[in-house]
Automatic annotation (TrEMBL):
InterPro entries: HTH_LacI, Lambda_DNA-bd_dom_sf, Peripla_BP/Lac1_sug-bd_dom, Peripla_BP_I
Source organism of this protein record: Chitinophaga skermanii
Keywords of this entry: DNA-binding, Transcription, Transcription regulation
Pfam families reported in the protein's UniProt record: LacI, Peripla_BP_1
Presence of the UniProt keyword Iron in the record: no
Protein name as annotated: LacI family transcriptional regulator
Length: 344
């Protein structure tokens, strides 16, 4: 059986109205009386009428689609951010095309080129851990293509940016561990190319400095793939606990890093198993771990929403956008048993 699509012409014929009247009523035009609008909208809803996206894109010279580039959809933070993106995009009549860089700058570039070739109206990008040179994106942006950066941002492009307060999240997490009596706090983080790495590392260092604890560079480990390579995290953890003087707590600076590190710790014994722990992660299962895990939780959904609002405003602006803002949303420190000093 062939599916019959209801058109404006069908609605006009059924209601004995002109197609132009129906079209204006569906758009909510002031030229159409409230009674006629109500009649048309109710009939359209009853017949499950939906605007033809191809016809709309031709008329408006827009695809009504936005492209999204993230490192990994399976990452708790990004899956929640994408939900926020979709909640705004779909309500404003946009489709969302999602791609993954898997922390590769080459794949990120291919994704962007593909999305642009698909004639998306704009891009939401969270940079890969390998990305340091944004010249390709800058060239695209200078041609007037709308781009908004979120989570992992860069000052190389003057555009809207939305991120979490990474510095204060890390500062409060580290200070909490210090207040619990931990003194040798290790920090496992991602690539130095990333803004989130630098901001969280600075928050960690400043919290130590406030409490007169010297920064020990041997307690800072970089996992350039952000936890996507389990072996990389395992080596970092083992390197931390190999010396005689071992860390008494671990602070991880990423969602994937935190969950992978927790899995490694659970398999270990001795000082590793006993170390305090707190991490940046948006997992909804943190309280189901044994012990329940303390986390710095980011407002991922809200970050996705805010970034999409800014992008759609750029797309729909009648004039070139020349004033930009960087939105920094607060994090939430959730304290559970893993970061509390154990009593002997």
């Amino acid at each position: 059986m062939k599916f019959e699509v209801v058109t404006i012409k069908d609605i006009a014929k059924a209601l004995n109205l002109s197609t132009s009247t129906v079209s204006r009523a569906l758009r909510g035009s002031y030229e159409i009386s409230p009674e006629t609008k109500k009649l048309v909208l109710e009939y359209a809803e009853r017949m499950n009428y939906r605007p033809n996206p191809i016809a709309l894109s031709l008329k408006e010279q827009r695809s009504r689609a936005i492209g999204v580039v993230v490192s990994e959809i399976a990452n708790n933070f990004f899956s929640q951010a994408i939900a926020g993106i979709e909640s705004i995009a779909y309500n404003r009549g946009y489709h969302v095309i999602i791609t993954q860089s898997h922390e590769s700058k080459e794949r990120e570039l291919v994704n962007i080129q593909h999305l642009v070739s698909r004639s998306v109206d704009g891009l939401l990008i969270s940079l890969s851990s390998e990305t340091s040179d944004l010249s390709y994106l800058q060239q695209l942006y200078e041609k007037g293509f709308p781009v908004v950066l979120f989570d992992r941002i860069s000052n190389q492009i003057d555009t809207h940016k939305v991120t979490a307060d990474n510095y204060m999240g890390a500062f409060h997490a580290t200070e909490h561990l210090i207040y619990q009596g931990f003194k040798r706090i290790a920090h496992i983080t991602s690539s130095t190319h990333l803004s989130i790495t630098r901001e969280r590392l600075q928050g960690y260092k400043d919290a130590l400095a406030k409490h007169h604890i010297a920064v020990n560079e041997n307690l800072i480990k970089y996992c350039n793939h952000g936890g996507m390579m389990i072996d990389e995290v395992e080596v970092a953890v083992e390197d931390l606990f190999r010396p005689k003087i071992k860390p008494d707590a671990i602070f991880t600076a990423g969602d994937r890093l935190s969950t992978i590190c927790l899995g490694i710790i659970k398999q270990k014994q001795g000082a590793i198993r006993k170390a305090g722990f707190i991490g940046f992660t948006n997992t909804n299962l943190a309280d189901l771990f044994s012990p329940p895990v303390s986390v710095v939780r980011q407002p991922a959904f809200e970050i996705g929403q805010s970034a999409t609002e800014l992008l759609t405003s750029m797309i729909e602006s009648k004039r070139p956008v020349t004033t930009f803002e960087t939105k920094v949303l607060p994090t939430n420190l959730i304290i559970r048993e893993s970061s509390l000093q154990q009593q002997d």
